[in-house]
Amino acid sequence: GTTWTQHNAPVFMPFRVDFPTQYTGYAVGLYNGVIKTNDGGETWNFISDTPLLNYMYSVKFLTTETGFICGQDQGGRQCIIRTLDGGNTWSGCWSGGPDTAYCICFTNVLTGYVVGSNGCLWKTMDGGSSWHTISTGYNVSFFSISFTNDNIGYITGSNGILLKTTNGGADWVNISPSSSCHYERCSFSDQNSGIIIGLRYTSSGNTCEIYKIQGGGNSIISLTSALHANFYAVSFPNADIGFAAGDSGVIVKTTDAGTSWARLNTGTSTPLKAITFPSANKGYAVGLSGKIIQTP
C-alpha cells in the first residue's frame, strides 16, 4: 500500500470488485456493466452490460470462469445471475420477491450465501444451481455477509444487527446490542475478529462509524473518533493486515488486526467504494468517475 497506480475504467462508476486470482479480476458498475482485467489491473475491458439486472450490488468469482452477481432485476426483484465463461454471457440462477440482494459470499466452490432486504438469506450447496431460504428470525435489511470457515459466519444489517452462525448458517444469533447505526460492510480476519463499517442516519446528516469486533462478538469497540473519515469498504488479506477505503480517496491500513490504523497516500481524492486485496501486498480499490487504483 505504499504506492498506488491510477487507472480509469470503461464504466462510469465501478461499485464492487473481486479478483479470483492475482491477475484476473472483475468489477461491476452499480448500473452499467461488468469490466475485466487479465493482467493484474494494468488494463480493463468492458465485457458485458448484464441486461438481467438493473442494479448490481455484489460480485464474487469462484474461478476465472465461474462467477456471480446479485442485485435487483428489471422487475424490482432480488436476483442472482451466474456466468460460466468468464463474464461473456450471464443467466439467471435465482429470483425472489420484490426486494434487493445486497451481498454474496462463498465458503467453497459449492456452498454460498446471499443476503438482502427484509431479512432475506439464501444458501446454495450445489455451486449456485439451486438456492433455498434460511430464516434468521429478523425482518431487517441485511447488507453484508462474511464467513471465516465452513461453519462460522457473520451478517450485518440495519438497526445495529450483527448475526453470527457457528453451524453453517442453520441457526443465527444476534450478538450486537440494538443500535440506530446500520452496519453495512464487514470483513473478518479470523473467526473471532473483524471490522464493521456502518452509517448512522440523523436529521443533521449521515455519519460513518467503524467498529472492531473481538472475541467472536463479545467485544465491540468503536474506532470512529480515531480514523476521522467516512469509509465504504474493508478488506483483510490475512489475520493481521487490513485496509479500509472511503471518501476523498482515503485508504487506511492496519497491521495489528484493526487495533491501530495508518493513512496511506493513494494519490487520488475520488471517493472509493470498494477495496480488495488478493494478497497482503497487491490490492485494488474502485470508486466514482471510473476510478481504479492498485498497489503495488
Write the layout of secondary structure elements.
Layout lengths: L4 E4 L5 E5 L6 E5 L4 E4 L7 E4 L4 E9 L5 E7 L4 E6 L7 E5 L5 E6 L5 E5 L4 E4 L7 E2 L8 E6 L5 E5 L4 E4 L7 E2 L6 E8 L5 E9 L2 E10 L4 E4 L1 H4 L3 E5 L6 E5 L4 E4 L7 E3 L7 E5 L6 E5 L3 E5 L1
Antiparallel strand pairs: 1-28, 2-3, 3-4, 4-5, 6-7, 7-8, 8-9, 10-11, 11-12, 12-13, 14-15, 15-16, 16-17, 18-19, 19-20, 20-21, 22-23, 23-24, 24-25, 26-27, 27-28
Model description:
The protein is mainly beta. The chain has one helix at residues 224-227, and strands at residues 5-8, 14-18, 25-29, 34-37, 45-48, 53-61, 67-73, 78-83, 91-95, 101-106, 112-116, 121-124, 132-133, 142-147, 153-157, 162-165, 173-174, 181-188, 194-202, 205-214, 219-222, 231-235, 242-246, 251-254, 262-264, 272-276, 283-287, 291-295. Strands 1-28-27-26 form a 4-stranded antiparallel beta sheet, with no helix packed on it. Strand 24 (251-254) and strand 25 (262-264) form a beta hairpin. It is globular, with a radius of gyration of 18 Å. The N and C termini lie close together (7 Å).
